[in-house]
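Per-residue structure
===
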Amino acid sequence: MQHTFDDSIEIIGARAHNLKNIDVSIPREKLVVITGLSGSGKSSLAFDTIYAEGQRRYIETFSAYARQFLGGLERPDVDKIDGLSPVIAIEQKTTSKSPRSTVGTITEIYDFLRLLYARGADAFSYNTGEKMVSYSDEQIKSLILADFKGKRISILAPVVRSRKGHYRELFEQIAKQGFLKVRVNGQIRDLELGMKVDRYKTHDIEIVIDRMAIDAEEDTNKRLTESIKTAMYHGDDVMMVIEQEAQEVRFYSRNLMCPSSGISYPNPEPNNFSFNSPKGACPCCNGLGIVNEINLQKIIPNPILSIKNGGFAPLGEYKSSWIFKQLEIIAQKYEFKITDAIADIPKEAMDMILYGGNEKFSVVSKVMGITKDYKIDFEGISNFIKNQYDTSDSTSIKRWAKEFMDENDCPECEGTRLRKESLYFKLNGKNIGELVQMDIAELLDWFADLDPYLSEKQKMIAVEVIKEINARLQFLMDVGLNYLSLNRSSKSLSGGEAQRIRLATQIGSQLVGVLYILDEPSIGLHQRDNERLIKSLESLRDIGNSVIVVEHDKEMIERADYVIDIGPKAGRFGGQIISKGTPKELLKEKTITAQYLNGKMKIEVPKKRREGNGKSIKLSGATGNNLKNVTVEIPLGKLVCITGVSGSGKSTLINETLYPILNTHFFHAVKKPQPYKKIEGLAHIDKVIAIDQSPIGRTPRSNPATYTDVFSEIRSLYTQTPEAMIRGYKPGRFSFNVKGGRCETCEGSGVRTIEMSFLPDVYVECETCMGKRFNRETLEIRYKGKSISDVLNMTVDEAVDFFENIPKIHRKVNTIKDVGLGYITLGQQSTTLSGGEAQRIKLATELSKKDTGNTFYILDEPTTGLHFEDIRVLMDVINVLVDKGNTVLIIEHNLDVVKLADYVIDIGYEGGKSGGEVVAKGTPEEIIKNKKSYTAQFLKKELS
């Protein structure tokens, strides 16, 4: 049936990447899922065609003047797109990596909290804990008239508060303004010429503005008004009143002020609560919440060594240099030798070596009877490292200095990032720093109970702000992020979490008529929370938006209104639409996706689980983040899965505790693990390899051949051909990154960029080398009739046959084929690989190295971006590894992987504060008997 134009998006002739000139119509205001094998062209259709065109049309609406600053956008390779509404893409890799970006700032909830605290919170004194007060001039006048009726008072303006100095100029200035008396440290004195105070003591100085008796006369009222004005002007909005007989002091301020100690705060503005503004940020850590401090154990790892033998790690062993000469002079002064163990050096000498000093001293030579003068001018090893870290512009020097430092919570703000005054503004007894440490679920409950604790005035101010905050918190709950806290740094979020936060922000904006494109929003989400996510997407659709989701999740496909399946295979064998229709229609098709959905194909559960080698690694007492003193035993020689709802502590336990411990043990890495008590069993493994989802290269020059290092072998092979040997070519001749063999017109990139000032940059094939990247001489060298450029354009499948007689190259390309990437070309730019492809290339790189049979592999959600069929291929490769005796530990939610594991450790019970415990452990068959585990409920269906 031909859809009419107004209820669908018509795409005609899409050819981006591997799409084969396809025509498709996508219904509007529906939830549409695009699925298919990895690399079949799903993202090419959703992001590189629909999103790219939507964005380009948006920028076309700007004036030519504005467009020149934006840089143009390329027109996607498509003949025509009709019916496109404004497009918003929610991808995985869009969060900021800045340490200043937190969950609160991305979702804008923190901005509302700042507003709430600036306008509605009560201020308390950090000295006495009393509630701060502020008055208008009229209120101050009536208070003075009431409190001091019939008494004599002095009105003073404080100008110096507990600061050192002689203040001669200040006294002169006060006298010039016509004042006669000042009060210095509690004593009233007449102003004299040349008057000053002791510059090394701290002083309190106030100007005596007026002395008067308070009575009911009319002129008293007028005089008091004038005096208050003058006192406020000179005292920076603070004034003092002293009753002359009792010497009782009272403070009054237009700002917030402590009634008994007189300290005042500036009137609060939202930026007083922002850690990104100098007005609110803690001055000690600049609003980062952490400071780098020198760790002496890293500077002196082994106190038994002497200075000469390299006892000070930053200096290394003795060499004839200025710094060691200075150490020899210090040794003479404090009478020790640089060959003595560091533990035996006197304390004063150690202080001088670490923290520096500037001294002259003389030594009398006993033999000659002569006196020799020495001068020590030494910065100190510890100070030098700190200064290099703070002031150096070089990243490598900063990295070197950081090796001897630890990141600790800032001692002043204790990690809250804000200055002291900002933390003494409270609502219902809590300051803003305490609110952002609560997880979202806890914070929602706190706001629900807040109302009875607010005054009538506060309720009027806060009602709208609290409504906004509650709505946004509820959206975060709806997408399954109830375990996050607002001060969680955005760089510690996983791809799926970051994407769901952006989704919550979008739902919050309540736009209508927009086309949303999401890239696998279910990544890292436990089956339990999947339901919430699908409901969120349905609510976006129901208010009148079109939602396109690129997804492999079975439940998501079944709940969609319309499914488009792209295939049949991946890479250049994909790019066609093999079926489209409702999920029910899809089940009748013969495609791979349909067969997995209707149960004709499935990943088989193994008949029996592996026994392992009987050894294990035991990690005891892990307490990082939300872990509650967890002890886990990981059996070796098995496929082990760590499961649990999002935020339960899986990554903390493995990526932040176990992996850094193993990495430090085998490779002396510098990352500090989260706190734990002890680890046993490291002797049973001989190396650790972790494979995560970060991209393999950020430049178009990086490609699978260079990343897996197979290109070096191919280049060496080309240097051994007879023609290359006659010409004397070295491996560098066959590199497109260095001068010599590459085409110099395009500098080895194969395309030339032509900059157009008002139009997008145009990439044209280099006319010199015709996109081959190398110059004519290099391309004349052939192996089996193929030039080096032809090899880069081969798919991995072709390369496996082509290099079958060269074991070194064959082993590497064959591994890439085994992980299911036979369809990519060796020279494909890394930037065009999907997340799942990049992770599998890393896996292939590690697999192609010779394994020892005792290696410990850690994989973090390796099924990201993988279709059911790709998961089967991947798990076959992983099973081969385990069969050789290695241990593979996978953090995973995907039940197809969990059901294949030999041993499962389930962490829960919930996410965030209610997580961090081991709920169940054992084989999948043992896990499903556990009544409390969420994983067990879903795993039961898979195994039955």
In short: The first strand starts at residue 8 and ends at 14. Confidence is low (pLDDT under 50) at residues 1-5. The chain has 33 helices and 34 strands. The radius of gyration is 36 Å.
